[in-house]
Design brief:
The chain has about 375 residues and is α+β, with helices and mostly antiparallel strands. About 40% of the residues lie in helices and about 10% in strands. The protein has 10 helices and 10 strands. α5 packs parallel to α7 and α8 crosses α9.
């Protein structure tokens, strides 16, 4: 596909066509299509948590719009902005936020494993952005990182609501405790990074890019924490989240979109790897969790071709685009592809990096001309 055209897109971002109103991000790591499948189960132990989660997530989207409306630009970073300030709260299986404060930055380890994992995951994300891209917390100015654990009754999700991370305990059947996978924590907090930078609209291709950027950096945060190179990484999102009764490896696969799971209850992974499989739908804000497989796969191809530590070159290019100020809020895949090609050349010249990113986009059906 020519980067200058985009017949698969389901919205128009040009001044000459209709526009879709902004949809502020309320992102949950478990996408609606999985919960919809679970909600149809004949087993009450499975459909009841799914239905409660869906009802909850619908209600939380209203609050997310209110938070986004009052989000302001961060101030100048203070003297301690290069050190994390983490506070963990316990919702006590209720749905009132933030809950009871149970852990501060200076406290020692808690007796609650969920508290410790949340604290560590926030720290891993903070360290990654600081040490790889010199970014001081998710807003670039040392924003304190708050999280709430033990949210709701068998709540099958985790989310960033514009102010804090919130973790459910899962149902201990299909999903484990949502504090377990560090890439899930990194994914959700990266929605905060996007919120403070490109602020991509959460609909259609810009929404799929919003999701993909979070998957990319969530995966890189896991790779960074484990000291993995691109060839050592599994390129899976949420590999430690699925319970023993699920036939699958993870929620998503960047290496092979569409293969993460194939389960009688969850359904089959619907993500396409290329533009040939692009899904036009009105569900899930225009398929943001489905079509994100395409830019996810492009990043995997780019990073794998370069080899080494994926955050150093491939990740740097993606970060340059996210924070560079040129990415439109209503960006299409074509917009993003062109900017990554431009960014690779600006930072690394016309060598391996430029060649690899052009080829990666071509392989998923977006060719530079």
């Amino acid at each position: 596909m020519d980067l200058n055209t985009d017949p698969s897109n389901d919205r128009t971002s040009k001044a000459t066509g209709p526009t879709v109103p902004d949809h502020p991000v309320f992102c949950t790591i478990i996408p609606p299509h999985i919960l919809d499948n679970l909600a149809q189960s004949d087993d009450p132990a499975r459909h009841e948590p799914a239905r409660r989660t869906l009802e909850h997530d619908h209600a939380r989207r209203t609050r997310r719009r209110e938070v986004a409306a009052r989000t302001t630009a961060p101030g100048e970073p203070g003297a301690d902005a290069d050190k994390p300030t983490r506070t963990i709260y316990d919702a006590g299986h209720q749905e009132n936020l933030p809950g009871t404060k149970v852990h501060s930055e200076s406290d020692g380890p808690s007796r609650d494993a969920s508290v410790n994992r949340a604290h560590a995951g926030l720290g891993a994300t903070f360290d990654f952005y600081l040490k790889t891209y010199h970014r001081k917390s998710i807003d670039g100015a040392g924003l304190a990182l708050d999280a709430t654990v033990h949210y709701g009754q068998k709540y099958d999700n985790a989310f960033w609501d514009g102010e804090r991370m919130v973790f459910g305990d899962g149902d201990n059947d299909l999903f484990k405790d949502f504090t377990i996978p560090v890439d899930v924590i990194g994914h959700e907090l990266t929605h905060g990074v996007t919120q403070y930078t490109a602020n991509l609209d959460y609909h259609g291709q810009s929404g799929a890019l919003n999701e993909s950027v979070s998957d990319v950096f969530g995966s890189l945060i896991k790779q960074y924490a484990l000291g993995q190179t691109a060839d050592q990484a599994d390129w899976l999102i949420g590999a430690d989240l699925l319970g023993p009764n699920v036939t699958g490896k993870a929620l998503r696969s960047m290496k092979a979109p569409g293969t993460a799971y194939d389960d009688d209850v969850l359904g089959k992974d619907p993500q396409p790897a290329t533009m040939k499989g692009y899904v036009k739908t009105m569900d899930d804000n225009g398929g943001v969790h489905i079509n994100s497989g395409i830019p996810n796969h492009a990043f995997y191809l780019f990073a794998s071709k370069l080899g080494g530590k994926a955050w150093e070159r491939a990740g740097q290019v993606w970060y340059d685009v996210l924070t560079g100020g040129e990415l439109p809020k209503a960006a299409t895949f074509a917009d993003f592809a062109k900017l990554t090609i431009k960014a690779a050349q600006a930072r690394f010249g016309t060598g391996d990096e430029h060649e690899a990113v052009v080829k990666a986009w071509s392989q998923v059906g977006l060719s530079a001309k």
